[in-house]
Design a protein that fits this description.
With about 475 residues, this protein is an alpha+beta fold. The chain contains 11 helices and 18 strands. It has a 6-stranded antiparallel sheet with strand order 14-1-2-16-17-18. A 6-stranded antiparallel sheet has the order 9-10-11-12-13-15, covered by helices on one side. The chain is globular and about 90 Å long.
Length: about 475
């Protein structure tokens, strides 16, 4: 029997270099799948593998791979029983990939080009067969496109690509039809489980790359009038009531945070794919988007308003990990890629800045299985969240205080390490990278272990077996 294929119901963000505060290109995503399914951090070394062949455990997709595997970071599942699900990472050439943003093609399109569920590429394979073999974001788009052209796709997905110069968003909406759009340098995009790319300009290959027969496919099957602009979202995507509850409110909320000057509504089918921010976007602002549960609105999932549970927020209990892959504009190669990683529920976690060219993974980030263990980074962050969930209002200050102080400490460590590493070379530089990665892990985990201790101690007073004793007895 074929095992059940897990898909991530995520939210993504892509930020052009002139839209960020420091010239970085940034892509990020919440990986949402299950409430208790640990992730690990990996730093995979550069190596040569003779007869390098990929065989999926989720279906019958297979692919011959190049012998040379570039160094890269990744966050695979605790088990490869259902597939690898490496999900996100940055390679030694400063290319970042995050896969995937699950999406849905409509029945009109799928009637003519159904998914290749048995042999097509799935989410679980994309990072593994693309990231270690490309030297630019554009090359990543082209490699994935070529794989889908030959083998087909088993599902609708969005894939994020970035390097130091540009970010791309790739959407596959049927078995073989796909398009990728370059994010303008002064813009950002927030995507939430929908086909999102809008008008395609087939005369602009610098900003669009597409499946070889995309236009012919649409024309041949009478899917869109040739006299209208080619709108990929309208032709291939969905536009129904479930989108208005599950998807568009998340895009609205991301855009309200980054472009508050623009008035929109949560159930607007025409929210734009691309927006310019009102202010330069910092890592903190991007993290705020990924941690959003409609705070400061009537729809806050943690609030008590009548409409509090009306819409699905960005940050939910099923988040396994959240990442921001930052490609900085520095000229020091080892300092370019920062793999910001928040284990567990984004709104209750902190983003830890790991140098993506590290060689040694902090021990607790290598651990964690299906059941709780106190020696796993994933489970430490989950435990703190579960304890907060017992009385969110009562423990809000404990959580926010820990997040604020820990984030400040992590930023301080990153700044100190940047200065130290830039002054070193060779093996000393690599050792300093690994030392900083160990230190940021220690800062975050120590803070959350202290938070757990505080929460457990406080919760002893909330037992239902408490009884008010006569002070005279």
């Amino acid at each position: 029997m074929q095992p059940k294929i897990q898909r991530s119901s995520c939210t993504s963000i892509l930020i052009g270099k002139n839209a960020s505060n420091d010239g970085s290109v940034i892509i990020g995503r919440n990986e949402d799948s299950q409430t208790a399914w640990p992730k690990h951090l990996q730093f995979n070394p550069r190596q040569k593998v003779t007869g390098n062949h990929f065989r999926s455990r989720a279906n019958k997709f297979e692919l011959e791979l190049p012998e040379l595997i570039f160094q890269h970071s990744a966050t695979p599942e605790w088990t490869d029983r259902y597939g690898i699900f490496a999900e996100d990472g940055i390679n030694e050439y400063h290319v970042a990939v995050s896969a995937t943003e699950s999406a849905y093609g409509n029945e009109r399109v799928l009637a003519h080009d159904p998914f290749k569920t048995g042999t097509g590429i799935l989410e679980e394979a994309i990072v593994t067969v693309v990231l270690p073999y490309v030297k630019t974001a554009r090359a990543g788009v082209q490699r994935l496109g070529a794989i889908i052209n030959e083998h087909g796709s088993a599902e609708a997905n969005g894939i994020l690509f970035a390097d130091q110069n540009e970010a791309w968003y790739f959407e596959v909406a049927s078995g073989h039809q796909w398009v990728a759009q370059r994010i303008p340098d002064d813009a950002y995009a927030v995507v939430a489980n929908q086909i999102s790319i809008q008008t395609i300009d087939f005369t602009d290959p610098d900003n669009f790359i597409w499946a070889p027969h995309l236009e012919d496919f649409v024309t041949k099957n009478n899917l869109w009038p040739a006299t209208r602009p080619f709108n990929f979202r309208r032709i291939f995507g969905t536009n129904d009531d479930s989108d208005l509850t599950y998807n568009t409110p998340r895009v609205w909320s991301g855009q309200r945070l980054l472009t508050p000057s623009c008035e929109q509504t949560p159930q607007d089918h025409e929210l734009p794919f691309l927006r310019q921010p009102d202010y330069p976007i910092t890592i903190a602002a991007a993290a705020r988007v990924l941690g959003d549960h409609f705070q400061d609105t009537p729809y806050d999932l943690m609030g008590n308003q009548p409409v509090a549970k009306r819409f699905r927020p960005i940050s939910v209990a099923t988040t396994q990990e959240s990442h921001l892959l930052q490609l900085r504009s520095t000229a020091t190669p080892e300092l370019v890629g920062i793999h910001w990683l928040a284990m567990g529920v984004t709104a209750q976690s902190v983003f830890v800045p790991f140098y993506s060219q590290g060689a040694k993974v902090p021990q607790m980030y290598q651990r964690g299985r299906e059941n709780y263990t106190p020696t796993s980074a994933y489970w430490i962050f989950k435990q703190a969240g579960v304890l907060v969930d017992r009385a969110p209002q009562a423990y809000a200050r404990d959580l926010s205080g820990t997040q604020t102080q820990t984030t400040q400490d992590l930023w301080r460590q990153l700044a100190l390490a940047d200065a130290k590493i830039a002054a070193l070379a060779g093996v000393q530089r690599q050792a300093a990278l690994d030392q900083s990665n160990a230190q940021v892990a220690k800062i975050a985990l120590s803070a959350y272990q202290k938070l757990i201790s505080t929460l457990i101690t406080k919760q002893t007073a909330r037992s239902p077996l408490n009884f008010k004793v006569d002070p005279n007895l």
